[in-house]
Protein: 7-alpha-hydroxysteroid dehydrogenase
Amino acid sequence: MSNFDAFADFRMDGHVAIVTGGAQNIGEAIAKTFSGAGAKVMIADLNGEKAQATAAALQAETGNEVLGIGCNVTIEEDIQQCVAKTVEAFGGISTLVNNVGWGKSYDDPLDVPLEEMIESYKLNTLSAMRMTAACRPYLLEAENATITNSGSLVGVLPAFDFIAYSAAKAALNHMMLGLAHYFAKQVRINTVLIGTVITEGYAAAGLDEKAQYALAHSDNLTGRAGKPQDIANAFLWLASPAGSWVSGQTLQVSGGGKRVRLKPE
Structure:
């Protein structure tokens, strides 16, 4: 019987990860997967109580240390506190997941208030830069240091009904690519372009049940909407030693996107 472990490079023993927006949905799946792979995880979420409850549940399930903290990633003081608490608890940081993101839908993209465009940029783009800056001293000391970002398929495809969100995610793609080149040989940086994954966030963004059903049965190559675990699996590959030769990339995880055909079926 072979002693070769094909999954050894996907282990994250000895790693310390911060997952923003990790209390539920995709962020929770990422935190759970990293913890299950052996990492110590800090869940940073706007809802501090939810972050702590999720952390306790994941620790009980995986047997590895998971903590939760309330953190508004648009506020510098919260970011610094999150980083300090993580280092205090776990001794360092090797893995940053910039998962936070949200957008609101508008029928007319020119109706989006300027203030909302700016706030979307702060939340979906600048928060990742500020978290990166705060974690930099610890990432530079870590082995296999990584930053992996939750991007969106609408950051590369037209989405006029989510213009503020899509523009901010497009900016995230380009900004993090620039940082990947800046941190070359020191920190690997990648972004996952996430397709349709139905969560309660869709309702909050203004999509009714009919719209959510249409998305869930979207005309992509796999014929289904994504699950949070589909995204978490991609994050594990990029953040673990298994992805050690991957940096400066935008990885599309979207079921293959839309099928294109000239004639209707």
